[in-house]
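Sorry, explain these C-alpha cells?

___
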Amino acid sequence: MTRQIAVITAGLSEPSSTRLLADRLADATRTALAVRGEQVEVDVVELRPLAHAAVDATLTGFTSGPLTEALDTVARADGVIAVTPTFQASYSGLFKSFLDVFTIDHADALRGTPVLLGATAGTARHSLVLESAMRPLFSYLGALTVPTAVFAASEDWGAAGQADRTAGELASRIDRAAGELAGLVTGRPVRATTEDDGFGEVVDFATLLSR
C-alpha cells in the first residue's frame, strides 16, 4: 500500500520561500519513508489559487471544484506537512481560512494524523510562531504534531549567488523532522482510499420487505 502525504503550503508569492521549505520537507519525508520500505505519494496543496474559493466557502458553508479536491486530499492523507508564512507573529489568514473551511466537512479528519509543522519569515525573531500559534491550532484539531518543527528565515536560504545554507543547521532540522514524521506515519495503518460513511452496503427496499 502507498502512503499518502499531503503538503499544505500557504505562500503568497510565486516562487516563495514557503513553497521552497515545503518542497524540502516533502523530499526529506519521501526519502525517510523510502528508507523504511514505504511507498509514498506526495500531493501538494497550494493555497494561493484557492484563496477566493476559501473566502466564498467561509461565507456560504459550501465548497466545490478544486477547493473540495484539496480538502479531500488533506482529509485522506496518512501524514500532513503544513507550512505557512508568518504574519503578525502568527500563521497567515489564508492558512487559517483553509483550515476553517476544512472543519466544515472534515471536522475530525486530522484527529490522530501525524503533522509536520513549518513556517517562514523575514527574520528569526518570528520563530516562536511554531510553538505559540501553529502547534496549539493543530492540537485543537486533534492532530499528532511531530516534536521537531521547522522554521526558516530569509537568511537561511542565503543571498543570491551564494551557496544554499540548507546544507547546515536547517538541513539537519529538516531531516530530523521528516524522520519523525515518517516514523509516526509508518506506525499507523494505511488509510483507505475511499471514505467509509459508516452505513456499510445499502440494501434495497424490496429486499428489506422480503426479510
Remarks:
- Residues 194-211 have pLDDT under 50 and may be disordered.
- The first helix runs from residue 17 to 35.
- The longest strand covers residues 79-87.
